[in-house]
Amino acid sequence: MRKKVLLHTLFFAGLLTLTACTGQTPEETTPETPTAISSSAQTEESSAEAASETTSETISETASETTSEEPSEAALETASQTTSETVSQADSVLLEVPEMNFSVELPPLLKDHYTTELSSREAYGETIQTLRVFYRSDTDSSLTSIVSFEEMSSSVWEQVQAEGGPLGSVLGESEDGRVVILNSLQSNPFSEGSPEFELFQDYPSQASVIQDSFQFLE
């Protein structure tokens, strides 16, 4: 009996010692913190955030580059030429000459400011017809020759070329052997500083409409 009492006494004394050292009863044991699992979760979360930021930056940079791209110089030049041609064709002046069997468009700067004169002369036994186009000034109604068209047979044209000297350019040759020659301005005919001088500074850029639009009526 004394042994049992002694054993119980020692058992309870041990429990009291354990409690005093840990400050917890056996039922109050603190669960272990899952350090490894928490670190893994944090690593995965950080990786996901980094991937999200990288994807966002890539999309943002791509969108920015796409938005900031400017049209190439070639594209701008093509657009400019297209616009210029459209304006030129819309404002040009249609001129039909039944006597010489052709039609042509004159530069826009001549619109409402031109008059024509038709004449003829004999050369090499044949007739050469000439149509002159004049610019009519608003200030003094004076006339300044701008372009002329000559119509002749191809055989006469060959003889004219054989003479040498300044020659015009061939606009076309008809099926019956008739040739139309263009003689155009080589320089600005007006006094520098005058309104007409400033106007005809644009003539070289508009003159191509004459050759582009030329055609025989029949």
**Strands ordered across the widest β-sheet:** 3-4-5-7-6
The number of helical elements comes to 7
For the report, how would you describe the main beta sheet? 5 strands, antiparallel
What general form does the structure show? globular
Summarize the structure in words.
By secondary structure, the chain is an alpha+beta fold. The chain folds into two domains: 2-25 and 34-67; 92-216, no CATH class. Helices cover 45% and strands 25% of the residues. The protein has a five-stranded antiparallel beta sheet with strand order 3-4-5-7-6. The N and C termini lie far apart (147 Å). Mean pLDDT is 75; it is low at 1-11, 13-44, 62-68 and 78-88.
